[in-house]
Structure formats: C-alpha cells, structure tokens
Specification:
The protein has no helices and eleven strands. It is mostly beta strands. The strands form two sheets. Strands 2, 4, 5, 6, 9, 10 and 11 form a seven-stranded mixed sheet that branches.
Length: 120
C-alpha cells in the first residue's frame, strides 16, 4: 500500500525559506508525485506535480520560481524547497500521488500534512 507522510513545517518570517520532507512507502515508481496545500477556509491548491515518465515538474504560477521539488530515491524521500516565502503561502502542506486530469490535478494517498506559517 502506498503511503506518503509530510514533515518539516514550521513558522518562518516572510522572505525566509523552509524545506519540507515527505517519506514514501510502497511502490510509487509508476506514479507522479507532488504536493498540494490547503489554508483554513480555502480550497485545496496545487503546489507541484512531477511526472514519473519524464521527470518534469508542474508548478502553478503562485509558487513557480520560488518552490522546487526534488527527490532522493535511495531514501524514499521527496522534498519541497520553499524560498521567498509569503504570508499567503501559509497552509497545511501535503505530499501525495498526483495525476493530471482535463480539469486540473487530483491527489491520492496523502497522509498527515505539515503546517507552514509565514508571518509578515
């Protein structure tokens, strides 16, 4: 069974950086993997999705150029490096299996998220 668990959240001042980690268990070689976030009272928002076929990563405009996805297959861990953080990045972040549908991205197999709070 595939399980993903995010960690590494915390409080940071605007303009700062934070790196989230995600430990992965189960076979995910054929899956796209990525991150999404959800702020209180708001809809889920895409953060990244990396294709298993070509390794390309999708980033929405809201994080493009500031956030970077990476992975260490030997450690079964993936990361989200977040730079130039803004208060609007405050949310609970989840790592998950992702897939692209015609209407956008869907996510599966996410575990407990990790809270990122960016203060102004």
């Amino acid at each position: 069974d595939v399980q993903l668990q995010a960690s590494g959240g915390g409080r940071v001042q605007a303009g700062g950086s934070l790196t989230l980690s995600c430990t992965v268990s189960g076979f995910i070689d054929d899956y796209a993997i990525g991150w999404f976030r959800q702020a209180p009272g708001k809809l889920r928002e895409d953060v990244s999705c990396t294709s298993s076929s070509d390794g390309r990563t999708y980033y929405p405009d809201s994080v493009k150029g500031r956030f970077t996805f990476s992975s260490d297959n030997a450690k079964n861990t993936m990361y989200l490096q977040m730079n130039s953080l803004k208060p609007e990045d405050t949310a609970v972040y989840y790592c998950a299996v992702c897939r692209h549908e015609y209407y956008g991205y869907e996510y599966d197999h996410w575990g407990q998220g990790t809270l990122v709070t960016v203060s102004s």
